[in-house]
Amino acid sequence: MEKNGVRNRHKSEKQNGVAPQAEEKKYEEFVIRESPLTELIDSSLHIRAIYHIFVVILVVLFFDTVIYDLVERGKINIGVTIVAAGFGDIKRGIRLWSYQMAVALMLYPLLRIYAWIGSFTRKYPALRPSMVVLGVAGVVAVEVTLAAVPVYELGRKHLALGSSASVTCEMFRLMMKLVAVSAACGPRCLDGTPLPTFKHYVYFLFAPTLLYRDQYPRTKTIRWGKVVFHLLEVAAIVFYCCFLWERFIMPYWSDYGKQKTVEAGTLVRGMFACVLPGVISFLCGFYCVLHAWLNAWAEMLTFGDRLFYEHWWITSRFSIYYRRWNRVVYSWLRDHIYLPIAPHTGKSLATFIVFFVSAVAHEVILSLSFGFFYPVLLVEFGLLGVVMVPLTASSGRRFPNAFNLIMWLGFFIGNGVLWSLYPMEYFARINCPPSENDSFFIPKSWTCPEVILKPDWTFQNPLDMFKESDS
């Protein structure tokens, strides 16, 4: 029954290019359902063939790496070196994660203490505002404690890219979960409603959702075959992205900054060369995190609701895309930022605040991961992304095919820019000589190396060719 409803909803969306608001609300609660790609791959031979194409590309790329290294260097490199470099100093990363988890677990006894204090003050309603302030201050203190040490440690001594990204993403994940638990259980501490058990609290910390509920729909068994399959997909995609980085990104940017000058044509050629590996990495990252990784954890924890995303790839409106791309984060932003402030600020300002908070969070993750502040994603997501929401609100509904094409064009160009500018800055900070003007916040690639045109560069009007032929 549920699957039929989902299929009918997506059929309606394909015909109209938009999902009615009533249907959006209908699917907010947790129910047992599979992820959209799971349904599509199981039910459509065409989608399964596309999946096989990506697997074959990975296999061909794997053999390309092995054969090239065997012929050129006399040894076999299957990508383990670059993966190990990307997740370097993993022990320090595990220690930081352990600290974050310890702080998150500490919230539960604090909730118990807060409920115990609330039981004494329940007879005095005048004390309730003070108790609310105390509770908010306690949550803020726990959040700051959780974030302060990882931020300080990553700022003091940078981890490898993969390790620092994992630590930072986990930091934000736990911080959002603590907000959700506090929002749900804080009032219960004052009203005398029983708190969840510690077992359920721990379950929520690992469950693939950011919304707290006392109960979630659960499956009856754990299909360990699916768990292993999804974890193998995660490992394969990690190698896949490392291959893309090693074969298509590093050849263009690894020497950036070693020479004092670089021709503009070289930069343009490199940026366009990064478009395809950039968008492939974009799709692989989506599949790895929001499908394979979350489905593996959902299966291990018998978490029944697997709707971590929706059919974002067929939409023609950016507002719908942002809701469907990552329903896990979108639902948290909706429940804990948008809905509480919208009655006071209005829908437009509340939407802008949500975009701003999300863009800043993404930028913090990238800054702590790379070791420098370079707000490329902030401009693309927090500025251009916000502008595209009203521009595609009505036109995307009227011309769904055209604006779906425009949306994908934006994905290709945007990822090509991201996979060019961030590596340029990353290698510029490695290759360029140190300067007294070096700063965490000022991009070094803007001044080193100097971008020049070819000495004999001239512009020839293509229309002059027709004039010469006429004469």
TrEMBL record:
<feature type="transmembrane region" description="Helical">
    <location>
        <begin position="49"/>
        <end position="71"/>
    </location>
</feature>
<protein>
    <recommendedName>
        <fullName>O-acyltransferase</fullName>
    </recommendedName>
</protein>
<dbReference type="Pfam" id="PF03062">
    <property type="entry name" value="MBOAT"/>
</dbReference>
<keyword id="KW-0812">Transmembrane</keyword>
<feature type="transmembrane region" description="Helical">
    <location>
        <begin position="405"/>
        <end position="422"/>
    </location>
</feature>
<feature type="transmembrane region" description="Helical">
    <location>
        <begin position="96"/>
        <end position="117"/>
    </location>
</feature>
<feature type="transmembrane region" description="Helical">
    <location>
        <begin position="129"/>
        <end position="152"/>
    </location>
</feature>
<dbReference type="GO" id="GO:0005789">
    <property type="term" value="C:endoplasmic reticulum membrane"/>
</dbReference>
<keyword id="KW-0472">Membrane</keyword>
<feature type="transmembrane region" description="Helical">
    <location>
        <begin position="227"/>
        <end position="250"/>
    </location>
</feature>
<dbReference type="InterPro" id="IPR014371">
    <property type="entry name" value="Oat_ACAT_DAG_ARE"/>
</dbReference>
<dbReference type="InterPro" id="IPR004299">
    <property type="entry name" value="MBOAT_fam"/>
</dbReference>
<keyword id="KW-1133">Transmembrane helix</keyword>
<dbReference type="GO" id="GO:0008374">
    <property type="term" value="F:O-acyltransferase activity"/>
</dbReference>
<keyword id="KW-0012">Acyltransferase</keyword>
<feature type="transmembrane region" description="Helical">
    <location>
        <begin position="270"/>
        <end position="294"/>
    </location>
</feature>
<comment type="similarity">
    <text>Belongs to the membrane-bound acyltransferase family. Sterol o-acyltransferase subfamily.</text>
</comment>
<feature type="region of interest" description="Disordered">
    <location>
        <begin position="1"/>
        <end position="21"/>
    </location>
</feature>
<feature type="transmembrane region" description="Helical">
    <location>
        <begin position="372"/>
        <end position="393"/>
    </location>
</feature>
<feature type="active site">
    <location>
        <position position="362"/>
    </location>
</feature>
<feature type="compositionally biased region" description="Basic residues">
    <location>
        <begin position="1"/>
        <end position="12"/>
    </location>
</feature>
<keyword id="KW-0808">Transferase</keyword>
<dbReference type="GO" id="GO:0008203">
    <property type="term" value="P:cholesterol metabolic process"/>
</dbReference>
<keyword id="KW-0256">Endoplasmic reticulum</keyword>
